[in-house]
Design a protein that fits this description.
It is found in: Cell membrane. By secondary structure, this protein is mainly alpha-helical. It has helices at residues 2-5, 13-27, 46-58, 63-87, 95-114, 116-121, 128-139, 153-170, 173-182, 185-188, 193-225, 230-245, 260-263, 271-282, 290-309, 322-333, 340-364, 379-405, 422-453, 458-461, 464-475, 508-517, 527-531, 538-552, 590-593, and strands spanning 34-35, 38-39, 480-483, 502-504, 522-526, 560-563, 566-572. It folds into 3 domains: 2-270 and 286-332, no CATH class; 340-461; 464-593, no CATH class. Strand 1 and strand 2 form a beta hairpin. It is elongated. The two termini are 26 Å apart. Residues 338-342, 369-380, 405-424 and 578-594 have low confidence and may be disordered.
């Protein structure tokens, strides 16, 4: 939560989603989402409803949307514990086995909580942690090791409602994960495959039907009140396009493989654990543990294969894979603790690099980057602050290494914990304590990274100033439009805008028509694109000359804004008349810009 509150909403994803929620709220529409006034069919509405729920209680504010994902993340960590208890129940276990079972459940939760990918996206206003949490609720009733269970209405209700929420979270992709686990039950449960099919197929079908019914709570009103192509694009068009021929994130089938180490970091620092744990999991194990191991392997490998074949790829699409990875790694960590010498060497190397980098950070740190909240570095200072950021990041890595250093040593590093001895009990507690420290180290690392290391970059990513600028001119009755780029509602929520921004092409006739209708209006354009506009006369040349004058004015130009590495220029409509228009036509003061 502190990491989420320490930074601005980041363009373009977070600003887009919070703006979609704002437009739905302002329009009083709980069913049809819009982005810059147009129907938004890329995502369903559960995330936006969660934002609205907080606004109903606390009023519209900037804080609540930042807290949604941290709270959902805590729910997901609780949910994976429920899945673990269902998959390997403690019923009928001896006292020693029962204690080992409890250690494993707690280890599963701490591994998920400590995965860097989970920690990063738990403070981001995005959909993947929400999807994973809902999927855990939908799959929990179907993770029983005893296959062929009789029909149960409670199972159908729990699974169907949670699956419906997963569909509302991210659409039909939730069905892929659900069918991957449930459809494979004949092969990983303890019952015969035929018995599972015969006894459980009705429950699977009814769960799917109930999930569709939950989806229809939103879908039917959206069909009635939304544009004709809105529902088709939402339920089929955008999903099919990403599966077959993604335009935005098309990547080769092997693209996920190099990212697997990042997905499970920091446990990827222990390759011996991963290798020996996997080899041990495929070896013959007690019957009670076989469903856990089979499901974990099938879920992890099957999910990776399926999503590698899908055209559109992003690392966070694999977020649900952290569930089987946590189940398997928790099982392996309790059996294959590392030798102290290798960890000690790793900690010494990482700690030395961290301390050296911390000293470097003090040397190159620009004055004011920690103390001045409005600090916006020049290009030279930005380079220095980038070096400081890297140094502080490595200092954070040293903290993480210290967490690893505290990993308890044991003499019986290769002894199986299945032995009912005090040594086995001590081994499990040591591994659990170490994983707890590692998870807390990951959270601390991300918090320090976002709150301190990247602090000099946040002013360049914070869109509040430009959003307030747009709000000011819209309230004055002046039209504001964007030119030559795909505007994705970046400023709608931050400026509490009530009017969409018109999008114009870099076309002389369109710009002339717009200037005629809005002579006192303003255009926003990327500086690099503006400076490359062709022609010697007309609106394009006038805009180019005005932009050149604004850029030459440097830090004193109140028309220059930043969006990451892009410079955005606010150009008055009068500038389209020719190069004689001057940047002094701006009516916004420096104080208004801040």
């Amino acid at each position: 939560m502190s990491a989420a509150l320490a930074r601005p909403y980041l363009p373009i994803d977070e600003t887009r989603y919070v703006s979609v929620a704002w437009e739905m709220w302002h329009a009083g529409s709980g069913f049809v989402s819009t982005m810059n006034g147009a129907a938004y069919a890329d995502k369903p509405v559960l995330l936006f409803w969660l934002v609205h729920a907080g606004w109903v209680v606390f009023g519209v504010n900037d804080v609540w949307p930042r807290l949604v994902m941290p709270l959902v993340s805590l729910l997901g960590i609780w949910q994976i514990g429920r899945v673990a208890r269902t998959l390997w129940p403690a019923t009928g276990l001896a006292d020693a086995e029962r204690q080992r079972h409890e250690l494993w459940v707690r280890m599963v939760r701490w591994i998920l909580a400590g995965c860097l990918m989970w920690v990063l996206y738990s403070q981001a206003l995005m959909f993947d942690v929400l999807l994973t949490t809902c999927l855990l609720g939908a799959l929990r009733p179907w993770c029983t090791p005893q296959g062929g269970q009789p029909f149960s209405l409670s199972i159908v209700l729990e699974s169907g409602v949670w699956l419906g929420l997963a569909l509302l979270a991210k659409g039909p992709v939730a069905l892929l994960w659900f069918l991957l686990v449930v459809g494979s039950r004949p092969w990983w449960t303890q019952a015969q495959a035929r018995e599972v099919w015969v006894c459980e197929w009705r429950g699977w079908v009814l769960s799917l039907l109930l999930s569709i019914a939950v989806l229809c709570i939103w879908l039917l009103p959206a069909v009635i009140t939304g544009p004709p192509d809105y529902v088709e694009d939402l339920l089929w068009g955008q999903t099919a396009n990403r599966v077959v021929s993604a335009q935005d994130h098309a990547r080769p089938p092997w693209w996920y493989l190099p990212w697997l180490a990042v997905l499970i970091f920091p446990l990827s620092l222990r390759p011996r654990l991963l290798i020996e744990g996997f080899l041990a999991s495929v070896a013959r194990r007690p019957t009670s543990e076989q469903p856990l191991l089979k499901l974990g392997r099938f879920w992890a490998l099957g999910g990776l294969l399926v999503f590698s074949l899908i055209s559109g790829k992003q690392v966070h699409y694999l977020m649900p894979l952290l569930v089987p990875v946590s189940l398997l790694l928790a099982w392996a960590a309790l059996r294959q603790p590392p030798a102290r010498t290798s960890l000690k060497l790793l900690a010494m190397i990482s700690g030395g690099l961290g301390l050296t980098s911390l000293a470097l950070a003090v040397i190159v740190m620009p004055a004011g980057w920690l103390t001045d909240a409005s600090f916006l570095p020049t290009n030279a200072a930005l380079v220095a602050s980038g070096n400081a950021s890297l140094a502080c990041l490595m200092a954070g890595a040293s903290l993480l290494a210290l967490m690893v250093w505290l990993w308890p040593s044991v003499d019986e590093a290769r002894r199986s914990i299945t032995a009912q001895t005090p040594a086995a009990e001590s081994l499990g507690n040591s591994a659990l304590n170490a994983q707890r420290r590692l998870a807390l180290g990951s959270v601390l690392l991300v918090t320090c990274l976002l709150a301190l290391t990247l602090r000099p970059l946040w002013p360049r990513l914070d869109q509040a100033a430009l959003a307030q600028w747009v709000q000011h001119h819209q309230q004055e009755g002046q039209e504001v439009a964007v030119v030559g780029w795909d505007y994705q509602a970046t400023w709608q929520f931050l400026g509490r805008l009530t009017q969409p921004l018109k999008q114009l092409k870099r076309d002389s006739s369109q710009l002339n028509s717009w200037q005629t209708a809005h002579s006192d209006g303003w255009l926003i354009i990327e500086a690099d694109k503006c400076l490359r506009l062709p022609g010697t006369r007309g609106p394009l040349a006038g805009m180019r000359d005005w932009c050149q004058a604004a850029v030459d004015d440097g830090a004193n130009a109140t028309s220059v804004f930043h969006q990451g590495r892009h410079r955005l220029l606010a150009v008055p409509a009068a500038a389209l008349g020719g190069p004689s228009s001057a940047p002094t036509a701006l009516v916004m003061t420096a104080q208004e810009k801040r």
